Amino acid sequence: MKQLLIVAALALGILHPAMARASDPAAPPAATPTLPSAADLVAPPVLGEPQLSPDGTRVAALGQVRGVPTLILVDVRYADHRSVPVPLPAGQSLDSFNWAGDRLLVLGLRSADRTRYLVRDIAAGTDVAIRRDGRIIHIDRAGRFMLLSGGDPESPGVFRVDLSTGASDRIVAPQKGVRTWYADGDGVVRAGLAWAGGRPAMLYRAGEDQRFTRTPQSTSDTPEIEQMVPVRGTAQGYAIAGSAKGRIGLYQYDFGANRLGALIYEHARVDLDGFETDRSGRLVGAIFTEDREQVRWLDPAMRALQRRVDAALPGRANRILASSDPRLLVWSIADGEAGGWFLFDRASGQATLLSNPRAALDGKRLATVRPVRFVARDGLHLGGYLTLPPGRGDKGLPLVVMPHGGPFARDTADYDSWVQFLATRGYAVLQPNFRGSTGFGRDFETLGDGQWGRAMQDDIDDGVAWLARAGTIDPKRVCIMGASFGGYAAMWAAIRNPDQYRCAISYAGVSDIAAQLAFDKPTFDSGRSFRGWQRRIQGDGAFPLDSISPLKQAARIRIPLLISHGTADETVPFDQSLRLHRALEKLGQPHEFVPYRGEYHSIRVPANEADFLTRVGAFLARHNPA
After folding, report:
1. Measuring CA to CA, which residue among 220, 230, 161, 160 is closest to residue 193?
2. Beta-strand runs (E) in 222-292
3. How many angstroms separate the CA atoms of 299 and 303, rounded?
4. Going by C-beta distance under 8 Å and a sequence separation of 6 or more, which residues neighbour residue 386?
């Protein structure tokens, strides 16, 4: 019983003072906030990735019991949100979980390098083991069956799995070249995507009782399709694909003809991330990330529902994540906080807190993140995020510029423990979305091709110069910090611009670009695809990569450098940092080197991440005091 009470407390979290509800006018005034510690900022969420059951009575979510990740089941019919852990088999970790009807959970359990599925009946407390491997492509909402794409990964078939017995039958045989299968809302496999000569072709059938036929192959100028879904009872569907303007938009899609149709919705500035359909497969909304993920509701009923949620949680960004007849699951966040999970009751119109997932930050002062826009030296308009230290004003501040990894990725305004650590220690933090960042159209992304250490680095420097001209920062008190590509950019800045930066910090950064490309090559499925990636990094094939590789230019480093890396990194190998450390030792160049044994490309153990941030704080205090 004591353990269950601990779990309930963890799952509920604590109501952040900034989250006092309109329905709770008696909420006590907030105490004077204190600064969060590094451990507070990196503490794993006590409730994460929640999923609402189809009948809206329960929430399944990732949780923590005495520091051990587990699955939590929350009964939201009760005011105290009664919570219990879902026991998992010994020696297995949770890889995924999905509702199948109102009482079944399909659990993906990993042991060694293999994932198997288990069906847990939460009412009976019984399990059914699924002995078939594969990727889930459909789960029946009534909980009768699911579809797995499995077998040879180069040419998988489709298996229908009975969730009451675990038995499986192959319902679609492997087809030459088809790696991805698509099912409609009824669980009927309707299409398979094949590739030939670098262009997509489609296998299609109108119904379960028909044979697949190969549709015409796409032409070379057909936009690349990112996501698609067939609508039951018709040959039509929806697809996310590139547009003539270079942005990714939402289109009608003709599966029978393998052809994009009319544009349904395109955002004016950013790419779409996906779309949402209702239980019948009808299109209801388009998903995009401007500063935070949001939905453009195309369905009038959902637009009205969003207005009701926003009225219940005013002054906040509210994202409806799941919907049932009695209630909705909503992620809600306001400036200066890490956000929380809320339940919205359709009948009463009230929103109640399910969990403040980062309960360690309750009562702690966080910094506000705001979007910014600036112009690069060549006239290109860029964006990013500026976080100012609380209570320090907006003039003459010390700065840490933090370029993101990828580099073909992007930053958002979402909670970032590193940013908050720096800001609450007195530093302004700039996160520039330099050219090559994704999400702003294909043309903007391709501007980054061949620009490692060149125009991408110019953009980072130009963001710093813009803040200096505005008087926001003191240009003599600037450092740079990043991970992965951001770590590379930090190390390269130490060589390229020692007059602009006082110090540099790299986690899992690339120091030898040619060696990294050689490491990447075996991960590509063809020489052609690898050469395409190489062109994106190198640009002109004759361009000397050593000229922009920190390892090869180590003798030019003249500013303090902190280098850190996980020894088990499978994305950027540990020796990318180790070799630079040894080169600097040989040169007699003072620096700090901090390896984390067993860590990966990102730091997974909270104690290690807290240690890293603490070292970063001490390093900055010595070389760029706030």
Report:
1. 230
2. 225-230, 236-242, 248-254, 259-265, 272-277, 283-289
3. 6
4. 369, 370, 371, 372, 428, 429, 430, 431, 467, 472
Query: Do residues 545 and 513 touch, judged by C-beta distance below 8 A?
Result: yes
d(CA 266, CA 264): 7
Residues 6+ positions from 510 with CB-CB distance below 8 Å? 484, 485, 487, 488, 516, 572, 576
Place of tokens 């699955």: 71
pLDDT of residue 219: 59
Residue 294 to residue 83: CA distance in whole angstroms: 29
Q: Per-residue pLDDT tens for 156-207?
A: 999 999 999 999 999 999 998 899 999 998 999 999 988 766 677 889 998 8
Which residue's entry shows tokens 């409730």? Answer: 47
465 DSSP 8-state letter: H
Where are the alpha helices (H) located in 193-281, listed in sequence order?
A: none
- CA dist list (Å): 380 to 283, 412, 433: 36, 20, 12
Angle between helices 606-623 and 417-424 (to 10 degrees): 40
Tokens of 447: 């501007």
Phi-psi region of 369 (alpha: psi -120 to 50; beta: other; left: phi over 0): beta
Query: What is the average pLDDT score of the chain?
Result: 90
Query: Could you give the CA distance from residue 20 to residue 352 in angstroms, rounded to a whole number?
Result: 10
Note the pLDDT tens digit of each residue in 433-463. 999 999 999 999 999 999 999 999 999 999 9
Alpha carbon 64 to chain centroid, angstroms: 21
For residues 518 and 538, is the Cβ–Cβ distance under 8 A?
Answer: no
Average pLDDT value for residue range 581-608: 96
> Contact, 188 vs 195, CB < 8 A?
no
Rg (Cα) of the chain, in Å, rounded?
26
Counting other chains too, the contacts that 251-255 makes at CB distance below 8 Å and 24 or more residues apart are: 253/225, 253/228, 255/190, 255/191, 255/202, 255/204, 255/215, 255/230
Enumerate domains of the chain plus CATH numbers.
369-623 (3.40.50.1820)
Q: Model's pTM, two decimal places?
A: 0.90
- Predicted pLDDT at 477: 98
Q: Are 365 and 424 in contact (CB under 8 A)?
A: yes
Give the mean model confidence (pLDDT) for residues 114-123.
92
Structure token digits, residue 330: 């909503």
pLDDT at 23 over 50: no
Residue type, 217: Q
Checking if the pLDDT of 298 tops 70, the result is: yes
* 555 DSSP 8-state letter: G
Rounded to an integer, what distance in angstroms lies between the CA atom of residue 457 and that of residue 432? 11
Mean pLDDT of 593-603: 97
CA pair distance 7, 552, nearest whole angstrom? 52
Partners of 227 in beta bridges: 240
Name the strand (E) or helix (H) holding 421.
Answer: helix 417-424
User: How many CB atoms neighbour CB 280 within 10 A?
Assistant: 11
Give CB contacts under 8 A, 24+ apart, made by 603-611: 603/507, 603/566, 606/39, 606/42, 606/43, 606/44, 607/39, 609/38, 609/42, 609/417, 610/37, 610/38, 610/39, 610/41, 610/42, 611/38
